[in-house]
Specification:
about 350 residues; alpha/beta; Rossmann fold; Four Helix Bundle (Hemerythrin (Met), subunit A); 3 domains; five-stranded parallel β-sheet; 17 helices; globular
Length: about 350
């Protein structure tokens, strides 16, 4: 709880990670930025915000940028409309050591009751450096019921000088009582042009490669980067799928269930992106006659594998045992592969 990023020695974290510093650096989310700017300009800040939108569209990144505005002494005192980058708050934030900023849920599969209790305890203390405390709560749909109830109490009686910024890719899974106490900030899938711009700033790739990754990414920076990081192959990288089919499901389930939540999510995201690209390329590369005939089984195989991966992600989100989730996934993939071979 309250985890802060550790900077790489000798480098400003913002330069190394190329994290946006101001609202003007964020592309593709004009509506969300307009809502946040209006709150800052009017001086009527909500005690809690709900950033709602699909995964990978920049909710947490925008939350961190919003926190810069809330914590900067120049902005708080009305001397500037943009973070100055030089006051003690801005400097400490850049190094990931600001004592009044808490990034809750980063790298975790769920936010647990202990996290909520720690958050409430921290929120009751006076700000140490800035004029307020800011809590960024990631993926609140994954909070345990007990953690949600504790958060609700904090939202019903918000501590003074505290701002909660919640993010969710699945608001339907968040209790209505939590949502109703937050100001909604809508996020949308990033357009291809915005994705190309972001990708080009994060990876040294040609415009053509960036465009291809953006087209397949469905508005998600995470998916686009996974595509770029995948190994070359006939339809993306088959390495992950081949590994999944090449080892005992039990052995693999044992290995992946012992990974941390971030590692498990990245594996499933990578496998899902590979399969999505295979589906797209198989459709594009086939003639109308071929689509109706010989390669129809291939298409069904990739589609069914992708559905299995999506099901595994949902099971983890519902806190099903990681071992059972991965064992079920690898058994299903092996069964689908056997069915495809028999149909050849």
């Amino acid at each position: 709880m309250g985890r802060r990023d550790r900077p790489i020695e000798g480098h400003m974290p913002d330069q190394n990670l190329r994290e946006p510093l101001r609202f003007g650096d964020i592309v593709g989310q004009e509506l969300a930025i307009a809502v946040l700017r209006a709150s800052l300009t009017s001086g009527r800040l909500a005690h809690a915000y709900m950033f709602r939108g699909p995964s990978g569209c920049g909710k947490a990144t925008t939350g961190r940028v919003f926190a810069r505005y809330l914590l900067c002494s120049e902005v708080s005192e009305g001397k500037s409309q943009e973070p100055c980058g030089q006051c003690p708050s801005c400097v400490r934030f850049s190094y990931g050591t600001h004592p009044d900023f808490f990034d809750v849920g980063k790298g975790q599969r769920t936010i647990k009751i202990e996290d909520s209790h720690q958050m409430i305890e921290d929120s009751m203390k006076k700000p140490f450096l800035a004029s307020r405390k800011v809590f960024l709560l990631r993926d609140v749909e994954n909070m345990t019921r007990e953690a949600s109830n504790a958060l609700l109490k904090a939202l019903e009686e918000p501590p003074p000088s505290t701002c909660f910024v919640l993010t969710s890719s699945n608001p339907a899974a968040v209790p209505d009582t939590v949502i109703s106490r937050c100001q909604a900030v809508p996020f949308r899938p990033l357009p291809v042009k915005a994705l190309v711009h972001i990708i080009s700033g994060l990876r040294d790739v040609t415009p053509g490669v960036a465009l291809e990754a953006a087209r397949f990414a469905a508005g998600s920076v995470e998916k686009a980067l996974l595509l770029l990081d995948a190994q070359d192959g006939a339809c993306g990288s088959h390495t992950l799928l081949e590994e999944a089919l090449g080892e005992s499901p039990i052995v693999q389930a044992e290995r992946y269930s012992h990974m941390d939540a971030e590692g498990q999510r990245q594996f499933l995201d990578s496998l899902g992106v590979d399969l999505e690209k295979c589906l797209e390329l198989s459709l594009e590369s086939q003639s109308e006659e071929t689509k109706k005939g010989a390669n129809e089984g291939n298409f069904r195989f990739y589609r069914d594998c992708l559905l299995s991966v999506m099901k595994a992600k949902r099971r983890l989100e519902r806190n099903v045992s990681p071992f059972l989730t991965f064992a079920g996934l690898f058994f299903e993939l092996r069964q689908l592969s056997s069915q495809e071979k028999r149909s050849e």
